[in-house]
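Table 4 source record.
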Amino acid sequence: MARILVIDDSPTEIHHFVNVLARHGHDVFTASNADDGIHLASDELPDIILMDVVMPGINGFQATRYLTRSELTKHIPVVIVSSKNQETDVVWGQRQGAKGYLTKPIKEATLIETVNELLCA
């Protein structure tokens, strides 16, 4: 299946994403902050990146902007996954280059549907 990078500073959220995605046959690797996630994405070139917004240091919006504009990683779809659920957050995420925006807590079916849509795009 797909190689998916999850960038989130919450060990609980990472555990949840890894379990759900692995159960659906995906190879999942993780970073606990955006800076490490940017480096890992550049080294590993995953098929999809799931990006939290609120993290220490570089936030998810900044990391998304960097990844979607970098020549090396701009082909990788980034899906923002956040508890921030205001319309302005969604619009801002799209303006940074995100291909999707999911609000926590995420239902398993919604997550898998979004991943599958991006893999087929």
